[in-house]
Write a structure and sequence with these properties.
Two copies of one chain form a homodimer. By secondary structure, chain A is mainly alpha-helical. Chain A is 59% helix and 6% strand. In chain A, strands 1-2 form a two-stranded antiparallel sheet. The longest helix of chain A is centred in the C-terminal third of the chain and has 26 residues. Chains A and B meet through helix 4 and helix 5 of A and helix 4 and helix 5 of B. Chain A binds a DNA duplex (30 and 30 nucleotides) through helix 2.
Chain lengths: 124, 124
DNA sequence: TTTATCGTAACATAAATTGTTACATGAAAA
DNA sequence: TTTTCATGTAACAATTTATGTTACGATAAA
């Protein structure tokens, strides 16, 4: 699939697609070809690649939008607040990443097939 | 405590403090006074106010920095990805908010006292 | 040789957050 | 009563981050 086509699917720009897919290529999950009949292909085993691996491949972007304002504040009040929050955030993150680790691309493909079949059935 | 003083503690601006504290006032957690000897005070019972209540009072800001790109995509692949993520995010959010609900301002105050005592001991 | 594609740098735009200025309002002290 | 100190709030500015765009070189197949 070309960057152009993927971009159209996602409603974005081909360069943005290349930028992001580049990380997945570095992680060995996809490969890209230039020139005629070029574009992107998945090279890894669908049953092995998990959402967690994708998250990691993309540079482990921050999961939370809220959190500590300062990492090591001198203010004792802020220290107390940070301490109270840190464990909670760590546990929530662990839960989420564990869930990510249990979803493979094969799972997504199977879900897609089911949705696709359902859609074709609806057409009748 | 004045907005000015709080702002200095947090390394920000008095107006930003007023803006945020205004939400807490609307929720009945703090009150403010003008003029001489004015400023902010906590009016609620420290043992009753939880971090979850603060989150709610502040308008329930988004917890996650990552997530669905589109809420109801027509793309079946995107639908599959969204479905796989939604439950995981919902569970992680529930866990986090549950933790928030179990930390009161009194807990923070107790933790602060301990830290303060420790700090004074260190001075000897 | 032409066409189609990625790779990448450089720049532009957009959106959200945060910070700032200005001034009106109110309350206590002098 | 006047002065001083504080919040309330609107309007605007600056910053940051993410996203989008343009341009062009490199490469591969038709």
């Amino acid at each position: 699939m070309t960057s152009e086509a993927i971009a159209q699917c996602l409603g974005t720009n081909p360069v943005v697609v290349r930028r992001t897919m580049g990380f997945l290529r570095e992680a060995g999950i996809v490969s890209s070809g230039r020139g005629h009949a070029g574009g992107w292909s998945i090279t890894a085993d669908l049953a092995i690649v998990t959402l967690q691996q994708l998250h990691e491949a993309l540079g482990e972007p921050a999961i939370f939008a809220i959190g500590n304002r300062t990492e090591n504040p001198s203010c004792l009040v802020e220290q107390s607040v940070n301490a109270a929050l840190e464990d909670a955030f760590a546990d929530a993150e662990a839960l989420l990443l564990d869930r990510f680790a249990n979803v493979t691309l094969a799972d997504l493909a199977a879900d897609f097939s089911r949705r696709n079949a359902d859609m074709l059935k609806q057409k009748d």
